[in-house]
Give the backbone structure.
Amino acid sequence: MTVDRDAPEEIVWQGKYVVAKTRGRWEYVGRTRNIRAAVILALIDDDVILVEQSRVPMGRNCIELPAGLIGDADGGEDEDDLAAAGRELEEEAGYRAGRLEDCGSFYSSPGMVSESFTLVRATQLEQVSEGGGTESEDITVHRVPRTQLAQFLERKRFEGCGVDVRLLLLLGHSIIAGEQT
């Protein structure tokens, strides 16, 4: 009997940015050209920088850590993860980091998506612009005290926003301790 992971990978459909594949009984999606992402944990003292933007698949705004694709521009296939993180932090949130640290590679939904992301901690931040993303994005930047994060997210949920799973990174300890509902 062939194990699914040993079966040949087949492309079912491919668009400009996303590719749908099968391998054995599994169906999953990924990014074309195996592009990865950088997700930035941007910290100023005890505050965290979050972004809010419309996400078409969700049909609503989402609260997230700043993030972006690594090497997605033509000719940028060899872009460094930390360089991409710095570029995306400045573009989305308007902050330049004095220090960027690679915290490792992670997978957000490994049963359905093959995309990985590098988590980057950004510190020694200097605000250099208002942020907001590129002209095709409409990003709102939030500077939130970590002690008020749960209340901030609850308020944003009440307003109809989704919350990216990566924010569990900041909520994890209080959830484990039973302080979150």
User: Anything to note?
Assistant: The longest helix spans residues 81-93. The two ends are 45 Å apart (CA to CA).
